[in-house]
Amino acid sequence: MSRNLYRLTNEKEEEEEKEKEEGGGGGGGERGGGKLHFDVFLLNNNNNNINNNSSGDITRLYKNGIHREKLIVVLDDDDEENGGEGEKSKKNFFNKKRTKYYKYLFFFTGILAFVFGFLLGTMLPTILVKNGDKNINNNNNTSPYGKKNMMAAASAVTMMRENYKTYQSVSDVIEGALPSGYTENDVNEWRKFTRNTTVVQIKEGCGRMQNRLLKFSDGTISCCRYRRNTDQIQGELFSYYLGLTLGLRNLVPTTLGLVKMRDTKWSSVRSEMMYAQWVEDKPVVLTKFVPNLITAFIPFNFRNSNRRLHPTDVSYNTSQVTGDILDNLVELAQWSDMIIFDYLTANLDRVVNNLYNLQWNFAMMDAPTHNLRRTIHDKLLIFLDNESGLLHGYRLLDKYESYHSALLNSLCVFRKSTAEIIKNLWKNGNVGDILLNKFNENEPDFKDYLPSLPEKSIQILNERITKVYNIIEKCESLYSSHNNDNDNNNNNNNNNNNKPPDGG
């Protein structure tokens, strides 16, 4: 775009200047009064040449007799063509002056902001350091390890031990209120019964596709678990033996059976066995069917991420332990056993199932517990379906161990009998021998049909017993003064032993 430069001059002034140049010397007179004219110059941005094009009268630009000797006004071509006659050029001229003032304002504002920020950044650390020194020099009572907090911690330990003493007295009441459940005598009777009683009916039920409900000649019903993979048969049977070893009352009597279609015991249901696609000489697990079971829910102590069951959570006076409170404590005692049992076997199909499914369903911990039921009359918890234990669960520890550990680490309440058995198993390290002996004694006819527990599983089981043992020891040291009493007694005995004999 080209621009027009208008040069404005006073005609009288030009004449006087010419006379001076010619040596005329005259020159006075008032300035002004002459006629103004302007020269038009065309500025070409491409070659920067300036040409004299025209002149004209612009006295109309001056009002009230104001003369400006020399004025350069820049107009756009568009303004000239549209008849702006310089009005817009004057606005542009004064706008440019105003813009300069804004630039100066922004410049000084930037300097002010820099100075303020510099001072603030320099002084603030100094203030903080001074305050920090004051805090360090304050009395130790305000420190996290000050006298007041140390006294509070000591009081908390004393309170925990007092609560533990209360819990110990209450635990005797709870132990006496536990349901009788099932014992080894019950399983011995069940084994004899299944060996000598004829099966008269088979129908679908009891879980998986090839599982069946068996009806014996006297009307007794059994849940028969059939698996093509013997790992799950081993897991069910040896988990049951481990439960017996721990003294648990919550496992329904379980024994082995063998598929023999030509045997008189199975002869009346041969067609149903073929329909179920059972294979000859396959071992099956026969569990006594328990009717009228109801769903069991996860206690509130274990539902959220802060799950825990400690003596301080169940500290009641013995006079308070009645009715619903006693029922709740009895259930928690059984949950303590179940958490230990499921941790040792790495059972995937109970509470770990609920925990794992939390990632898809936030209400899983409020849902009924998988493979856990409760009897109506005595509120015994029944630990069902333990086939994933000891083998299949061990192979998946990398995936599920965090869930197993989360439950175990939440626990600091144990039945006395269970804790003592864990201590003995840890001390002797003979759990593998115990389980093998139970298998040989109870199922001598099945050695050729079902392998014993692999050595690798026994090794992992011993490692997990050690972990449970460490948890028990930690909780006892945290809550009881029993160890301190033993130390005092030992010191007294040592002092007595160091006394010289009479007359020495």
From TrEMBL:
One of its GO terms (biological process) is cell-cell signaling. Keywords: Membrane, Transmembrane, Transmembrane helix. Coiled coil: none annotated. Residues 486-498 have a biased composition (Low complexity). It comes from the Eukaryota. GO terms for cellular component: extracellular space. The chain crosses the membrane at residues 104-128. Residues 1-32, 482-504 are annotated as: Disordered. This is Protein four-jointed. It comes from Pediculus humanus subsp. corporis (Body louse).
